[in-house]
């Protein structure tokens, strides 16, 4: 059955909107634990998700059986039609110009041409570089994924794309008075060349562990904190980015609701979420077929935009900007981030720390919690350093800090010109590959706590 | 109802007991581009009971009002107080130099908004949204309507037995323009205690919508400012905002006791001698923070927080007043029946002086005239940063160009110390907002225009 | 259809002269999600796929695919097997399989007829009608039905249908900075759930959180609801029965078989042969016949659990604890249907006197399975006197040691089934409320 015709038939039956998203995934997963292959998986799968909006009611039906696409679409239509009278809230979709395009995102080094054996040898070689006297165990996790997608909508969009993604995580542990662990991931949208650069980060993760092993507990109280680019990225994503997700804004679950044009951060802060730049969260079209756009969320401290799919753009009276992403064909798209960046400024790192009598330099993160509705955050740094009289003195571990996001953004008093990004998977019911990044950032005061 | 409550007060074995019946009708309409709308209408109410036993508080609430349920609720509050009393080292003592208050207090309402149907209000908002959208530069709009009709009965062990009938209403018209991907906003809002005529006494809804569009389109052509320290003239909204956010919270007695910057500063000079800052729940019948009697049954009195530049008083409830040797003046407020009262501001403002605004501008060689706030934050150290909606550059006594993306920051007390002129006009301009401190509160703020020194932020 | 696909894969394995097993799953699921007081949407999905494990010279390769691609998948997996280390894994042969009830036609019909929205609506209405301030802020309903098939080159071919239904609702009372939230959830394999009751329970629960008590400074007994206790046990105690953890020295129970480790009344059994258990199944995900495994019997440690791979490493036999998160993941060792039994007391007896009642814990995943020590935040929790909730307790920290608590814990009689997934692992338990007396609380 021709999918184009399928969508048009549903529109003829009175649907406001419908679409079909077909996906085929190819994945290789390799896990090398202390030099021994622990998991080796290759697989492929396919499936499709159909969506229908009838009146104010949605229906989503997916299937792994591509021969039953027509009946899936029909069930979605019935589901939408049945739920319409039950919906209390009006809904709609903001207009987008129909897209017709096929985009194949390039791989410089096609990972399909590299045998699992060669990939494993590569991981073994990384392992060799990681091993040393203080590294007691290693765990290297590699994954490459190629997804081929096709999106056909009832209002004229038909796009195809192929997105390759590669990622390698290095996890190393050592022991001093207690067992310590350091984690670092390297990857992006592209082929095996993404993994080649893992070598450049071997020293990063080893340094982190080395410092953790001799680290002490931090002071607590309100202190100036310098976040490294990785932590700045995670802070921008977790503490700020989620609150800028259109679905949370429209449903009143964001502290940023109604604040477009308002001052929400210090003048030095510009935060963007950009699916068009190089990163792990890059894509040409989102999972509704909307062309991906760079969104400047905060410009010079003023809230400027949200991340929007078509439905939430309609609810907020704004322009969709390609914010709809689904983990795979089993689930509907949600409003998600892509590559979230706090733009670098013009200061040198030394200028950031030179005026600090007593403070913390916090690097990378080992987790945390945020509440977008209340605008609060709590993060743990992976490793940190004490700053005394303008100089970095000794390493610290178990550093956590917390506060109100908007208050903290106002207290950013220095942004360096350095720029780095990191990869991660963001969880919001579904998992999405993302890049977070930024510069070294000085917060004049934040509550730091230690735990032992 | 009042009979039951009075009976229960008499029957309670607690050292002090407070019953607060609170019924609220709320209607909220939000319109986007005259199309997507949300209408919420709700009616709810209940009774909150607070008791003091052996120097410890217990609080409980219920949404039912029969005598049996209220007896149970009282019992639970008493149980909770008794339990926490066992662990409490410092016993709560109440300021008790109070005379009981009785009677009914009604808000002064001209043309109650309850006389208009929800359809009329939705229609008004759609019309305004569409009108704003019809301007070629406007890409999106929002209109908001919110109204609260409250009935409260406060009965307590001091002998207080009052009924308060209150109506508060807010309206917002917001227009968004787009400058190459950068959003530019024009906003007009007002909130009052009162009715339709009170809400629109300054401008009609149509004028407010037009002004929002005018601001947004003016700002499209505006430039960014140069940052740095500058002489600024603040309009009443910004004066109210700094009084409330930067100064007001630091003088709330609970924050004072936990170490705010105002601790131990009574009698000290904290502002220019031109500055007298007041909080008063009964300052004006239409100010949005109108609170004739607070939720502990204390009638509202004028609190001169700063008198001629000297810090005089903190804002207290009965507990902290006794602790600090001050007088409670009606700042114990709860947002809903299910919230216990805590220390809140009401209407916070700076008293007018004797300069004329025109003179002030004429005298200013180099500075900014700032109108309206767009977001911001302040902390317990009185450090603040606020976005400014419209900033006019003042050169040689004249308003020259309009700037956008301007922010103002500084230390609240330092800024007030630098005040060198206070105008003779006065307005409450903060009534459309809420204050959040564990619970919400309807507040207002304002004052005259002030001239002072502050840090201007922005990028050029 | 999925059976044919598994048979076809087994045929290819035979023709290629390879050893291995093939797991197939076909399922249909529907979820209704609740947002801000109404059903925001419903998603239906029909999934299917195969996970193929090829064993060549004792080396394992794993691949997954959609039906029709069996041969390519096998060839790839065979290629991958060269890269792995050797394991002495031995695939099971034909065994006697017991009869376990896992499929209820009524759930299947309800799913097909789209009855979920009505049931979900009942749950919302019930929660809303408890009190006007209450918003069912999130939650949802899940129904699933499907077939699992496992076959291997030793002649095993097993297939079983299953159904499941679950509902959860979080009732919240919004406040500016702190909203009160309480949730209720239940699950079943049968069409025997009362969703209205679930909504009412959630509403009543959040109402009972409106008044706040001060955190007690004197040490009180702690009563954990099945949900809170289940999470704590799953993270902090059950891993100690895992054969791999035992072998690697990450279990408090290493080398302690037949020792007394719990009160005489306490038994913990992993029993997948119970009719309608959330983790019940007549065979495990590697085709090993299910049987009840007593882990602790009347206070004495009796068994650890094993899958095929760990059995080979530990030189023992599989206890039927090979589990898979989906057809995409290789089998891993895991618990199946944990049941806590012993002397049961009426649940009212548990809350006699003054106690702390805990309905949820945050941070259970930070418990140390190697020591059984835990430190969690209780949320929600209440101060209770003689069964009456006096007020909620905020930010209460609980810490203790689970293996130690087994000596003194007292079981209620209000058994609940739990079902949850954490990554590719599943929590499937049945237990009552439990009163603990040796918990330190602070905050």
What's the topology here?
The complex is a heterotrimer of chains A (452), B (460) and C (443).
Chain A: H1 3-12, E1 17-33, E2 36-54, E3 57-63, H2 69-83, E4 100-104, H3 116-130, E5 137-153, E6 158-175, E7 179-189, H4 193-196, H5 202-213, E8 221-227, H6 229-240, H7 246-250, E9 271-273, E10 295-299, E11 302-303, H8 310-316, E12 324-325, E13 334-335, E14 339-342, H9 349-354, E15 358-371, E16 376-388, E17 391-396, E18 399-404, H10 405-410, E19 412-415, E20 420-427, E21 431-438, E22 441-450
Parallel strand pairs in A: 4-6, 8-15, 14-21
Antiparallel strand pairs in A: 1-2, 1-5, 2-3, 5-6, 6-7, 8-22, 9-10, 9-14, 10-11, 12-13, 15-16, 16-17, 16-18, 18-22, 19-22, 20-21
Helix pairs in contact in A: 1-2
Chain B: H1 2-11, E1 16-32, E2 36-53, E3 56-62, H2 67-87, E4 102-106, H3 118-133, E5 138-156, E6 161-179, E7 182-193, H4 196-199, H5 205-220, E8 228-234, H6 236-247, H7 253-257, E9 277-279, E10 303-307, E11 310-311, H8 318-324, E12 332-333, E13 342-343, E14 347-350, H9 357-363, E15 366-378, E16 383-395, E17 398-403, E18 406-411, H10 412-417, E19 421-422, E20 427-428, E21 434-437, E22 439-442, E23 444-447, E24 450-457
Parallel strand pairs in B: 4-6, 8-15, 14-23
Antiparallel strand pairs in B: 1-2, 1-5, 2-3, 5-6, 6-7, 8-24, 9-10, 9-14, 10-11, 12-13, 15-16, 16-17, 16-18, 18-24, 19-24, 20-23, 21-22
Helix pairs in contact in B: 3-5
Chain C: H1 2-15, E1 19-35, E2 38-56, E3 59-65, H2 70-81, H3 105-112, H4 116-130, E4 135-152, E5 157-173, E6 180-188, H5 195-207, E7 222-224, H6 226-236, H7 243-247, E8 267-270, E9 293-297, E10 300-301, H8 308-314, E11 322-323, E12 332-333, E13 338-341, H9 347-350, E14 354-358, E15 361-362, E16 373-378, E17 381-385, E18 388-392, E19 396-401, H10 402-405, E20 410-411, E21 416-422, E22 425-431, E23 434-436, E24 440-442
Parallel strand pairs in C: 7-14, 13-22
Antiparallel strand pairs in C: 1-2, 1-4, 2-3, 4-5, 5-6, 7-23, 8-9, 8-13, 9-10, 11-12, 14-17, 15-16, 16-19, 17-18, 19-24, 20-23, 21-22
Description:
The complex is a heterotrimer of chains A (about 450), B (about 450) and C (about 450). With about 450 residues, chain A is an alpha+beta fold. Chain A folds into two domains: about 5-215, PmbA/TldD superfamily (PmbA/TldD fold), CATH 3.30.2290; about 220-450, no CATH class. Chain A is about 20% helix and about 40% strand. In chain A, strands 1, 2, 3, 4, 5, 6 and 7 form a seven-stranded mixed β-sheet that branches. In chain A, α1 runs parallel beside α2. The termini of chain A are far apart. The model of chain A has no long low-confidence stretch (mean pLDDT about 95). Chain B has about 450 residues and is an alpha+beta fold. Chain B folds into two domains: about 1-220, PmbA/TldD fold (2-Layer Sandwich); about 230-455, no CATH class. Chain B is about 25% helix and about 40% strand. Chain B contains ten helices and 24 strands. Chain B has helices spanning about 1-10, 65-85, 120-135, 195-200, 205-220, 235-245, 255, 320-325, 355-365, 410-415, and strands at about 15-30, 35-55, 55-60, 100-105, 140-155, 160-180, 180-195, 230-235, 275-280, 305, 310, 330-335, 340-345, 345-350, 365-380, 385-395, 400-405, 405-410, 420, 425-430, 435, 440, 445, 450-455. In chain B, a hairpin with a 2-residue loop joins β6 and β7 (about 180-195). In chain B, α3 (about 120-135) runs parallel beside α5. The longest helix of chain B is centred in the N-terminal third of the chain and has 21 residues, at about 65-85. The N and C termini of chain B lie far apart (about 65 Å). The model of chain B has no long low-confidence stretch (mean pLDDT about 95). By secondary structure, chain C is an alpha+beta fold. Chain C has two domains: about 1-205, PmbA/TldD fold, CATH 3.30.2290.10; about 220-440, no CATH class. Chain C has helices at about 1-15, 70-80, 105-110, 115-130, 195-205, 225-235, 245, 310-315, 345-350, 400-405, and strands spanning about 20-35, 40-55, 60-65, 135-150, 155-175, 180-190, 220-225, 265-270, 295, 300, 320-325, 330-335, 340, 355-360, 360, 375-380, 380-385, 390, 395-400, 410, 415-420, 425-430, 435, 440. In chain C, the strands form five sheets. Chain C has a six-stranded antiparallel β-sheet, sandwiched between helices. The mean pLDDT of chain C is about 90. In chain C, α4 (about 115-130) runs parallel beside α5 (about 195-205). In chain C, a hairpin with a 6-residue loop joins β5 and β6. Classes of the chains: A alpha+beta (about 450), B alpha+beta (about 450), C alpha+beta (about 450). Chains in contact: A-B, A-C, B-C. The interface of A and B includes residues 259, 263, 264, 304 and 406 of A.
């Amino acid at each position: 059955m021709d999918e184009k015709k399928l969508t048009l038939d549903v529109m003829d039956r009175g649907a406001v909107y419908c679409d079909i998203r077909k996906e085929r995934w190819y994945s290789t997963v390799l896990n090398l634990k202390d030099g021994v292959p622990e998991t080796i998986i290759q697989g492929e799968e396919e499936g499709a998700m159909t969506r229908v909006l009838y009146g104010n009611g949605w229906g989503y039906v997916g299937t792994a059986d591509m021969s039953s696409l027509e009946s899936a679409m029909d069930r979605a239509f019935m589901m939408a039609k049945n739920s319409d009278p039950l919906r209390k809230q009006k809904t709609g979709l903001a207009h987008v110009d129909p897209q017709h395009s096929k985009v194949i995102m390039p791989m410089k080094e096609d990972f399909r041409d590299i045998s699992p054996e060669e990939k494993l040898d590569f991981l073994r070689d990384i392992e060799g570089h990681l091993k040393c006297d203080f590294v007691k165990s290693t765990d290297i996790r590699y994954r490459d994924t190629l997804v081929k997608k096709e999106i056909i909508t009832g209002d004229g969009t038909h796009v195809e794309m192929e997105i390759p993604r590669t990622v390698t995580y290095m996890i190393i542990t050592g022991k001093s008075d207690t067992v310590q662990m350091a984690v670092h991931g390297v990857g992006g949208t592209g082929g095996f060349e993404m993994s080649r650069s893992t070598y450049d980060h071997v020293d990063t993760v080893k340094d982190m562990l080395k410092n953790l092993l001799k680290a002490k507990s931090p002071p607590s109280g309100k202190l100036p904190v310098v976040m490294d680019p990785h932590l700045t990225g995670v802070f921008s994503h977790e503490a700020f980015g989620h609150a800028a997700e259109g679905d949370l804004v429209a449903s009143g679950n964001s502290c940023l609701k109604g604040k477009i044009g308002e001052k929400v951060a210090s003048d030095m802060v510009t935060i963007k979420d950009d699916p068009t730049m190089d990163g792990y969260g890059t894509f040409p079209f989102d999972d509704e077929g909307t062309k991906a756009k760079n969104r400047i969320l905060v410009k010079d401290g003023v809230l400027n935009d949200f991340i929007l799919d078509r439905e939430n753009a309609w609810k907020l009276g704004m322009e969709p900007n390609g914010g709809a992403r689904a983990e795979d064909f089993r689930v509907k798209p949600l409003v998600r981030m892509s590559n979230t960046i706090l733009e670098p400024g013009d200061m040198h790192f030394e200028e950031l720390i030179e005026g600090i009598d007593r403070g913390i330099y916090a690097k990378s993160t080992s987790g945390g919690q945020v509440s977008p509705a209340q605008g609060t955050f709590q993060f743990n740094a992976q490793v940190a350093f004490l700053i005394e009289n303008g100089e970095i003195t000794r390493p610290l571990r178990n550093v956590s800090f917390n506060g109100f996001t908007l208050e903290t953004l106002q207290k950013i008093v220095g942004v360096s010109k350095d720029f780095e990004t990191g990869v991660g998977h963001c969880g919001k019911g579904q998992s999405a590959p993302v890049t977070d990044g930024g510069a070294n950032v000085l917060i004049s005061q934040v509550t730091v706590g230690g735990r032992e | 109802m009042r009979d039951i409550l009075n009976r229960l007060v008499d029957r309670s074995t607690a050292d002090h007991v407070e019953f607060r019946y609170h019924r609220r009708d709320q209607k909220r309409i939000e319109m986007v581009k005259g199309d997507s709308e949300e209408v919420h209408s709700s009616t709810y109410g209940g009774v909150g009971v607070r008791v003091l036993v052996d120097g410890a508080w217990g609080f409980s609430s219920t949404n039912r009002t029969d005598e049996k349920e209220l007896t149970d609720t009282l019992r639970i509050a008493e149980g909770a107080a008794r339990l926490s009393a066992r662990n409490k080292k410092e016993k709560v003592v109440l300021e008790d130099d109070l005379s009981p208050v009785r009677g009914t207090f009604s808000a002064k309402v001209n043309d109650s908004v309850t006389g208009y149907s929800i359809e009329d209000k939705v229609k008004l908002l759609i019309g305004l949204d569409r009108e704003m959208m019809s301007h070629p530069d406007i890409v999106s709009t929002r209109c908001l309507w919110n109204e609260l009709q409250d009935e409260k009965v406060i009965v307590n062990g001091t002998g207080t037995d009052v009924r308060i009938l209150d109506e508060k209403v807010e309206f917002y018209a917001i227009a968004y323009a787009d400058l190459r991907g950068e959003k530019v906003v024009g906003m007009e809002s007002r909130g009052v205690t009162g009715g339709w005529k009170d809400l629109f006494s300054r401008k009609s809804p149509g004028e407010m919508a037009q002004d929002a569009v005018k601001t947004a389109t003016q700002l499209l052509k505006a430039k960014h400012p140069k940052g740095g320290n500058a002489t600024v003239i603040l309009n009443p909204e910004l004066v109210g905002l700094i009084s409330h956010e930067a100064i007001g919270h630091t003088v709330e007695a609970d924050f004072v006791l936990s170490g705010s910057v105002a601790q131990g500063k009574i009698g000290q000079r904290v502002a220019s001698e031109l500055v007298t800052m007041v909080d008063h729940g009964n300052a004006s019948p239409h100010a949005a923070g109108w609170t004739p009697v607070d939720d502990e049954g204390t009638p509202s009195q004028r609190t001169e927080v700063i008198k001629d530049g000297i810090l005089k008083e903190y804002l207290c409830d009965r507990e902290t007043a006794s602790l600090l040797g001050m007088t409670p003046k009606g700042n114990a407020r709860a947002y809903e029946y299910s919230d216990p009262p805590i220390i809140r501001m009401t209407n916070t403002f700076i008293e007018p002086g004797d300069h004329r605004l025109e003179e002030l501008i004429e005298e200013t060689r180099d500075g900014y005239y700032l109108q309206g706030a767009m977001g911001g934050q302040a902390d317990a150290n009185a450090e603040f940063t606020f976005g400014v909606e419209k900033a006019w550059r003042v050169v040689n006594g004249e308003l020259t160009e309009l700037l956008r993306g301007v922010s103002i920051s500084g230390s609240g007390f330092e800024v007030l110390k630098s005040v060198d002129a206070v105008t003779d006009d006065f307005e409450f301009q903060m009534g459309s907002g809420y204050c959040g401190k564990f619970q919400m509160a309807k507040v207002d703020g304002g004052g005259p225009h002030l001239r002072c020194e502050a840090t201007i932020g922005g990028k050029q | 259809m999925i059976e044919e696909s598994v048979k076809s894969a087994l045929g290819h394995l035979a023709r290629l002269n390879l050893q291995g097993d093939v797991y197939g799953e076909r399922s249909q699921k529907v979820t209704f999600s609740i947002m801000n007081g109404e059903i925001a949407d419903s998603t239906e999905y029909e999934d299917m796929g195969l996970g193929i494990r090829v064993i060549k010279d004792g080396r394992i390769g794993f691949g997954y695919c959609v039906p029709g691609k069996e041969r390519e998948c096998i060839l790839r997996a065979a290629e991958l097997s060269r890269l792995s280390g050797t394991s002495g894994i031995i695939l099971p042969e034909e065994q006697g399989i017991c009869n376990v009830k896992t499929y209820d036609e009524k759930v299947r019909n309800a799913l097909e007829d789209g009855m979920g929205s009505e049931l979900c609506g009942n749950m919302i209405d019930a929660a809303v009608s408890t009190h006007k301030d209450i918003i069912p802020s999130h939650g949802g309903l899940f129904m699933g039905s499907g077939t699992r098939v496992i076959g291997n080159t030793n002649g095993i071919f097993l297939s079983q249908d299953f159904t499941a239904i679950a509902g959860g609702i979080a009732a919240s009372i919004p406040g500016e900075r702190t909203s009160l939230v309480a949730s209720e959830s239940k699950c079943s394999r049968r069409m025997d759930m009362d969703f209205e009751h679930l909504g009412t329970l959630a509403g009543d629960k959040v109402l009972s959180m409106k008044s706040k008590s001060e955190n007690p400074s004197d040490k009180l007994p702690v009563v954990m609801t099945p949900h809170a206790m289940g999470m704590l046990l799953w993270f902090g105690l059950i891993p100690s029965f895992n054969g791999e953890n035992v072998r690697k020295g990450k279990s408090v129970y290493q080398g302690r078989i037949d020792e007394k480790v719990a009160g005489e009344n306490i038994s913990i059994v992993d029993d997948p042969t119970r009719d309608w258990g959330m983790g019940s199944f007549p065979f495990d995900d590697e085709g090993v016949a299910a049987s009840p495994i007593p882990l602790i019997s009347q206070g004495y440690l009796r068994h650890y659990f094993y899958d095929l791979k760990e059995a080979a490493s530990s030189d023992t036999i599989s206890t039927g604890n090979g589990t898979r998160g989906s057809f995409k993941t290789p089998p891993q060792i895991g618990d199946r249907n944990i049941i806590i039994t012993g002397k049961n007391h009426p649940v009212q007896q548990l809350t006699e006197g003054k106690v702390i009642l805990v309905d949820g814990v945050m941070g259970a995943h930070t418990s140390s399975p190697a020591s059984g020590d835990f430190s969690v935040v209780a949320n929600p929790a209440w101060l209770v006197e003689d069964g009456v909730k006096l007020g909620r307790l905020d930010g209460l920290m609980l810490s203790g040691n689970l293996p130690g608590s087994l000596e003194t814990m007292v079981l209620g009689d209000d058994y609940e089934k739990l079902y949850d997934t954490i990554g590719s692992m599943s929590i499937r338990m049945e237990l009552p409320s439990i009163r603990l007396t040796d918990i330190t609380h602070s905050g």
